[in-house]
Amino acid sequence: MRAEEKFIIDLLVSKTDFYNSEKASNTLDWDYIIHCCTQHKLLPVLYNRIRNISHVPQYIVRILDNEYKIRQHIYSKQRDEFLHLLNELDKAGLKVILLKGVYLAEKCYTDPLERPYLDMDILIQKNETEDVFRVMKNIGYVQGEYNNNTHTIDEFDNNRLNGYEVELQHYGEFIKLSGSDFFPIYSVDVHHRLSTVFDSFHYDPKVLFQRAEKEKIQGISFWRLSNEDFLLHLSSHLYWHTLSLRDIISGDDICLLSYFDIALFISKNE
Question: What percent of the chain is predicted at pLDDT more than 90?
Answer without folding.
Answer: 76
